[in-house]
Specification:
- The chain is an alpha/beta fold and 499 residues long.
- The protein has two domains: 231 residues, 3-Layer(aba) Sandwich (Glutaconate Coenzyme A-transferase), CATH 3.40.1080.10; 218 residues, 3-Layer(aba) Sandwich (Glutaconate Coenzyme A-transferase).
- 17% of the residues lie in helices and 28% in strands.
- It contains twelve helices and 29 strands.
- The strands form six sheets. Strands 18-17-16-15-19-24-26-27-28-29 form a ten-stranded mixed beta sheet.
- Strand 15, helix 9 and strand 16 form a beta-alpha-beta unit.
- The radius of gyration is 23 Å and the shape is globular.
- Pathway: Ketone metabolism; succinyl-CoA degradation; acetoacetyl-CoA from succinyl-CoA: step 1/1.
Amino acid sequence: MLRHTRRAFRPRVMSAAESVQDIHDGATIAGGGFGFCGFPFELFDAVNATKAKNLTVIGATMGGVDSGFGPLARDGQLKKAITTYVGENPLFTQHLFHGEFEVEFCPMGTLVDRLRAAGAGLPAFYTPTGYGTAVAEGRLPVRFAPGKPVRVAEYSQPRETRQFNGRWCTLEMALPADFALVRAWKADRRGNLVFRGTTQNFNLASAKAAKVCIAEVEEIVECGELDPKTVHLPGVYVHRLVCPPNIRRAAEFVVERKPGFSTGTGKNAHASRNLIARRAALEIKDGMTLNLGIGIPNMVASYIPPEMDVVLQGENGLLGIGPYPLPEEVDPDITNAGKQTITMSKSGASLFDSAESFSMIRGGHLDLTMLGALEVSGTGDIASWWIPGKLLKGMGGAMDLVVCGCKTIVLMEHTDREGKSRIVENCRAPVTGRDCVEMIITDLAVFVVKKAAGGVRSLVLTEIAEGLTVEEVKLKTEAPFAVSADLKTMPLAPVPSQV
């Protein structure tokens, strides 16, 4: 993707409707934002109003039922969506499952780096993310057949793979766009952009990947009024500025902590999911940098002792996640990777975009990650993103996290809603990663994955919940396991007291 930039370059200031008038049928649009955080609602509403057809949209998540990606799906404007996550948008998935447009699922770190590669003039790159899964081997869903039950009509093709220094990697192609729609806090009339909170996320990489970048901003100032040290995106990447009179700032999930409590645990500390989180908190050691996935892992932060010095990292671009906000502290521009409102740690935090975040992850700079799962096999394979015919959310950042070299712990309820074991001999659902899980914590037990001579991996039961027997755990566990000679009752982190 090459474009000509005029020497005396200044972006044009215009209305949202004017800015998207040349978005044509068949255009590819990269959208910034992570959930609703940093999402350019006004610009996407304007695209919806153009009635342009056969659009390819690129985004971290396909959020927005009434505004965002949902209306484009509803009104038959989509040809294809390239994304990492479709959960929490029933309107979008309804039309996807009816076979009305294609989908290209991509691990989150790979997706942002494909955009970054396009902006940097790099045609392709290799990554360990996705090797051994449907990403590399083919069999990702591309199009669904109309009708019920939900059935895949077309799958992806296998990718080229290559070994580097003994590690297998998958070839990924750069992902250029015709247009990028991004949202920033401030712009000057040169197009230099400043973002606030965690809104950098996918906005920076999307802007760089496009031939034409349209920025929705809260304020436009004169040239020279922005401190150069505060600029996150240089104006060379920005072509049009839109400053709506009533810009929409929203959080997908507003989560608060109650006044008088140091965390968001409330009164549910003894529910099964919280019990899992309380046990998992004991695996966190002083000085660690860690990533907590969505669901039960996000709950673990509520049970980390306040005197412990740890740093929580989010894929959306925050190092130093603090507690949930008090009602008066809620800021939709500060969220975690679960798209929940959050605060920044008072002991120090830094903000960046998702490309930087996944450089930290894949570069091996984390000590620990905790993830949710649908299934875990007896050898430590994990499946967390798709149950064909039943559930499809997308892999998010999990495929990147399981190859990053840090300790991986899975937190999940022991059985599904039908009472079937989630710890299985072999994963039946498409895997997120192979031979990567080192510990499983459920509401019934704790297992570690031991690696014997010759590389054979197997489960060992090390702890059981209070009041349970080994036989009861065996009855609810499909995968075979050994019992540790040091088997003990599962300890739990204390419930935080009121402050």
